[in-house]
Amino acid sequence: MASAPLSRRAFVAATAVIVCGSPLPHMLSGQERDVHGDPMVAAEEISKLEVISHIPALYEFYALMHPDAQAIVPHHVVIRYFREVFQDRDPKPAVATGVTYKNWTWGVNGVTYPGTAEVSFRQEYGDGSVEQDVVRLVHHDNTRKWFFGRDRAWVDQQIQCFTQTLNVPQEGTVPYGLENAVLSDDLLNRLPKSLGDGPMKGTLAHLEPHETRLPDWAGGEVSLRYESSEHYPVGYVQLLSLKPETNIPEAIRGEIETYETAPPFTLHGWNLLPGNAIPFAHYEIFGSDAVGNALSVMWGRAGGDRIAVISHVDEATLEAIAPALLDA
Questions:
Q1: What DSSP line would sit under 30-66, residue for residue?
Q2: Quick one: which of 12, 35, 217, 296 could link to 251 by a disulfide (CB 3.0–4.6 Å)?
Q3: How much is the pLDDT for 231?
Q4: What are phi and psi of 282, to 5 degrees?
Q5: pLDDT tens figures, 28-50
Q6: Contact 212/239 with Cβ under 8 angstroms?
């Protein structure tokens, strides 16, 4: 980890040395409180999501973040922070203990939010420690919304830390010897029809065009998929042509940035630098709950007009696919 563990993590991942300037007290009437629902209940519901590592729960958790915070902090930063830092402490859902209403200024963007519900809470961790703090919830679109962080320096640090394209150096060559693959029309015809007998090995099946996401930069594609004995798609091979207005490095960079903003995603290596004969990215993406993550390689020849992608949930199987694509 590039950032040291911080002492307080509940709801907002908001621990910072410098806390926002003291907001002006602004007590609301009982009628005004009720019209927006009970913020203490909302805080506890948000906390139930923050302690779950299951990706859909964390996406829902992010959806409950205020739009002003979402405009600054992308999905992948919040989800990776909570999975890799906050949840490492084995937190339990927080218990709200009180609420006051104030005009509160978020230290990240300097905007003041009138009538903010400041909910105090108590939270336990797996090591037996207990922490007490507050979370600020602002009513937006009929929902209480939370904020990530309390000052801009800390938020920028998390964006830097959890954005892999900023931290993985561009170097090396495409793995599995794929620099020797000729990206011709018969590329997919070289693939083995089956990959062993295990449940995740897979048998080759045609992948219909509507079953894949065609990137914006692609002018067309030819795809084949490996399906397991349980009919799970466990791997695929694609050959994509580029539209005239783009190039190989730009296309790969665009895909990596798209994957990174929709975690889980891990970038293992890449090299898109000028002068690299085979621009590539080697990464891992979430396949499904049934099969887990898939290791993938995307590459093409500098100056060429085609990109190939191979992916499989089993690395040994991926290594078995690659030789079939190499130039004999």
A1: HHHHHHT--HHHHHHHHHHHHT--SHHHHHHHHHTB-
A2: 217
A3: 67
A4: -120, 115
A5: 333 344 345 799 999 999 999 99
A6: no
Amino acid making up residue 232: Y
Is the backbone of residue 6 left (phi > 0), alpha (psi -120 to 50) or beta? beta
Secondary-structure percent of the chain, ordered helix, strand, coil, rounded to 5: 30, 30, 40
Give the separation between CA 137 and CA 236, rounded to whole angstroms: 44
Is pTM, for the whole model, over 0.90? no
Please state, in angstroms and rounded to a whole number, the distance separating the CA atoms of residues 117 and 282.
45
Structure tokens at 292: 């887990």
Cα 287 from Cα 289, distance rounded (Å): 7
Six-digit token string for 8: 């307080």
C-alpha dihedral (176, 257, 223, 276), degrees to nearest 10: -40
3 state SS of 25? strand
Burial 51-73 (b: 16+ CB within 10 A, else e): bbeeeeebeebbebbbebbbebb
pLDDT digits (tens, 9 = 90+) for 236-294: 888 888 998 889 999 999 999 888 887 788 999 999 999 999 999 999 987 776 677 88
Do the Cβ atoms of 252 and 272 come closer than 8 Å?
yes
Coil vs helix vs strand at 148: coil
